[in-house]
Amino acid sequence: MVPGTGTAVNVLAVLLGSALGVLLGHRMPQRTRDAVTDGLGLVTLLIAATTAADVLSPALAAEVGDSAPLLIVLGSVLLGGIAGSLLRLEQRVEALGGVLQRRLSGETGTAERQRFVQGFVAASLLFCSGPLTILGSLNDGLGAGSDQLVLKSALDGFAAIAFAASFGWGVAASVVTVVVVQGSLTLVGLGLGDVLPDAHLAAIGGVGGLLLIGIALRLLRIRDVPVADLLPALLVAPLLVTLVGALR
Predict the structure, then answer these.
(1) Of the four, 33, 100, 129, 186, which is 20 to 30 A from 140 by CA?
(2) Quick check: 163 and 219 in contact, CB under 8 A?
């Protein structure tokens, strides 16, 4: 396939899912929307748990030692969180959501704006923070096929239906983030000679799982974890693996 095909399929899946979700959402009472959001939060928590289990990967343990993987995840989250908070990533993502809301929906009510921004932020983070986003986009750029992004597209499409039923068109606006993030990673893949080693991908998976737990907590209305501020941890994780592996 032509590089970028997987991202195009992903965008179409999110847009279609969002449209279906909005149509269904107008016919649902608020308590049903809340139930859908809670269910999605629980499913996100399950996916997060299975993804975070990558920290137990034998490849990662072989690269950095048996006791280091959890410390690498801890260090990645701390350093990434510091960098993200200094860069005010959470505020910037929310501001972008507000700009898109005003331009795309034309609605200016405070409650509607918050709903739009919440849908944009939550959907953007869910669709773009997982390790499948990174590995699938890199492989797409390397010419190894778009199978992983097609699988991700199916998952994102169903998630978009549930999100849009609760949050409206803000979910559809998240395709901007999908294009930027996955498109950039695909371009990176075009310049790489090979995919990341298994140990590095496992570290990214462990950190990505924790970020998904933060999203689940937001969906379940337990705590508004500033997940966007923690996104740099996905970049710090493979760097720490390289550093620790070199020091062994």
Answers:
(1) 100
(2) no
How far, in Å, CA of 157 to CA of 127, rounded? 10
Cβ atoms 60, 197 nearer than 8 A: no
**Phi–psi pair at 143, nearest 5 degrees:** 80, 15
Q: How many C-beta atoms lie closer than 10 Å to residue 31's C-beta?
A: 8
Q: Which helix (H) or strand (E) holds 204?
A: helix 198-219
| Side-chain half-sphere exposure of 18, counting CA atoms within 13 A | 22
Give CA–CA dist 33/154, Å, rounded.
21
Task: Record the pTM.
Answer: 0.72
The whole-angstrom separation of Cα 246 and Cα 230 is: 25
> Which ranges of the chain does DSSP label H, i.e. alpha helix?
5-25, 30-52, 58-64, 69-87, 89-104, 110-128, 131-142, 147-167, 170-173, 175-191, 198-219, 227-230, 233-247
In single-letter form, the type of residue at position 44 comes to T
Q: Which of 237, 241, 202 is nearest to 81 (CA)?
A: 237
Q: By C-alpha distance, which of 42, 111, 96, 72 is closest to 202?
A: 72
Separation of alpha carbons 243 and 133, rounded Å: 24
Instruction: Give pLDDT tens digits for 118-166.
Output: 788 878 877 886 666 876 787 788 676 777 788 788 888 888 888 888 8
Longest dimension (CA), the chain: 59
